[in-house]
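Report of the visiting student (M.T.), summer placement. My assignment was to run the structure pipeline on a short list of targets and document each run. The first record concerns Enoyl-CoA hydratase/isomerase family protein.
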Amino acid sequence: MLATTDEESLRVITLDRPDRRNALTPDGLDALQTAVTETDAPVIYLRGAGDAFCAGADLDVVADLDGEAAPAFAEHGQAVARAIETSDSVVVAGVDGPARGGGVELALACDLRVATERATFAETGVTLGLFGAWGGTVRLPRVVGEGEAMDIALSGRVVDAQEALRMGLVSRVVDDPKAVAESLTDNDHAALSLLKDRMRDTAAQETQEAREAETFATLIERADFDR
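After the run finished, the structure tokens were exported:
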């Protein structure tokens, strides 16, 4: 269901249910959260096995939800996405193939989304009478803007890699997304974590600027200008 490999300064997490396009069950969500939170690696690379990134929630699980279980399942996925977003590690989603529903939402929680030309994205929940509830309605407008987010969510249409790049849903389209994650490990590891923390700050601007100055001072004291 999930495979983890630790390389030098890099943890590779592979969603490993290729026969179900790496759809996630509650156990899979738990395993993903553990893999993200229980590591000291400065960079995490999240990928899917086979020809898909992630189809989102396993529809067999979703079909059995009732009015009582549905909020808990949504909150479960939200907690995993939040763990990705708040991880001390920089998390890179390598999207090589389809990302659908919850798969898009998990990618949105990552710090960088890097795609191949084979990548496609869609919030298809609306075609089933649903919508993504793993934080997608919060993060998608923040990443691509309200207009693009409305179009993606209300239409359920498929966005290819080049359109995703144009709208900022991904930052790069490359042949080897893992190489991008590996390149980040060449940077100062403390700076990576602290910079992510600053970029994720949602406090008032004045508070953010004060924290930025404090963090800069912290890094100056340990910077190696001879690197």
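The domain at 2-183 is CATH 3.90.226.10 (2-enoyl-CoA Hydratase; Chain A, domain 1). The chain has two domains: 2-183, 187-220. I thank the supervising group for their guidance throughout the placement.
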